[in-house]
Amino acid sequence: MQGIFEDTATAFSLKSDSELERAFFLFKLIANEPLVKIGTAMTNFAIKARLPVDGLIRATVFDHFCGGVSEEDCLLVVDRMWHKGVASVLDYSVEGKDTEDPLDNALAKVLKILDFVKEKEAIPFAVFKPTGYGRLSLFKKIGENKPLNNKEKAEWDRVVHRFDITCKKAHDLQVSLLVDAEESWMQKAADDLVEEMMRRYNREHTIVYNTLQLYRWDRLDYLKKLQAAALKDKFKIGIKAVRGAYMEKENERAKEKGYPTPICNSKKATDDNYDISISYIVDNLEQISLFLGTHNELSTYKLIEIMKERAIKPDDKRIWFGQLYGMSDHISFNLAARGYNVAKYLPFGPVKDVMPYLIRRAEENTSVAGQTNRELELLKKERKRRKI
């Protein structure tokens, strides 16, 4: 199985020559950290100044990393990927707000997506962020067990209601629902709330999935405690396993506040924690379903080997592989071609509202050692194969 990700003909089979060239151009830009910083500042200025840059953004970085501005706009991408066996996870990538109207709007959007997803075999999951449904500071206060005033209690009741109405609808439609993870200082409240949703709606099938950021050294212990509760109370667990997306922010806050960082002390420690946790999940597959959210080839190969050793079929619905749209096509499309369950996170939303997401993607690619260079290496290889 080693070496399957070198097949660039399969990886980039959906890309025209011009799309391949655009991808090559974008990743060359992203590889240059000073350019990313300059581009980010210029883009933020242009949007705040209401300059007419939507068309330029959409024709370049937006169309590479996003599916469209609406659910309907995403359908062409969804159908093209599904033709190659790659499913989609529609991700309304508009950042959470602190006022009630946008929070209710986010709920309405996710409920609409669930209806939309039910009609499309190609979209087996829906997703939302906890801070799309409530203020980060409120999650933090709940997690720290601080007393709430009457206004905050009513506000938290609305957050719980938003979670419940979403998970109930997913259960009624039999659509799986991924709940993203965020900063550690708000995660305790989110974990407890998602666990309660699992108790209610994961009785017969795995509907609700929580996300483990495994660059945190405490997450395997959390998973073991969750499993003990699930065995006792007879519910199933859904886990999306990722490495994590807030490392610099987590380390800076820990230093500033004077507490031990929740982040593993090295890249190797993170990788070991990730792989050990995945093995634990597969050892308990009767109880836990897995969505492996990773761009790491070695971790992907390790899961493939574990599945082969334990005679788990590639299309076993308890195991999914997931990557972000616009990245790691060599993993996604080569896995799908060999019968594995694969889904791409497909962000969408109005161009200006999705810009924070796009900027974060560019910054993460710049900071993750080897990621951008690997993308460029494979794009160069395919350009050479096509004689572009």
Pick out its properties:
single chain; 388 residues; alpha/beta; TIM Barrel; eight-stranded parallel beta barrel; 16 helices; 12% strand
Topology (elements, then pairings):
Elements: H1 8-11, H2 17-30, H3 33-48, H4 54-65, H5 71-83, E1 86-92, H6 100-118, E2 125-128, H7 136-143, H8 150-173, E3 176-179, H9 184-201, E4 208-213, H10 219-233, E5 237-242, H11 247-257, H12 267-283, E6 288-293, H13 297-309, E7 319-324, H14 329-337, E8 342-348, H15 351-367, H16 371-386
Parallel strand pairs: 1-2, 1-8, 2-3, 3-4, 4-5, 5-6, 6-7, 7-8
Helix pairs in contact: 2-16, 3-15, 4-15, 6-8, 7-9, 8-9, 12-13
Task: Please give the domain count.
Answer: 1
Please outline the major beta sheet.
8 strands, parallel, barrel
Total strand segments? 8
**What does the average pLDDT come to?**
90
Question: What is the CATH C-level name?
Answer: Alpha Beta
Question: From the structure provided, what is the oligomeric state, counting identical versus distinct chains?
Answer: single chain
CATH architecture call: Alpha-Beta Barrel
H/E element order:
HHHHHEHEHHEHEHEHHEHEHEHH
User: Which structural category fits the helices and strands?
Assistant: alpha/beta
* CATH topology (fold) name: TIM Barrel
Cα distance, first to last residue? 29 Å
Low-pLDDT stretches are none
Shape: globular
Strand content: 5-15%
Taking all Cα atoms into account, the compactness measure Rg is 20 Å
Helix content: 55-70%
The number of helical segments is 16
Strand order of the largest sheet: 1-2-3-4-5-6-7-8
How would you sum up this structure, described in words?
This protein is α/β, with parallel strands linked by helices. The protein has a single domain (66-354), classed as TIM Barrel (Alpha-Beta Barrel). The protein contains 16 helices and 8 strands. The chain has an 8-stranded parallel barrel, surrounded by 7 helices. Strand 6, helix 13 (297-309) and strand 7 form a beta-alpha-beta unit. The mean pLDDT is 90.
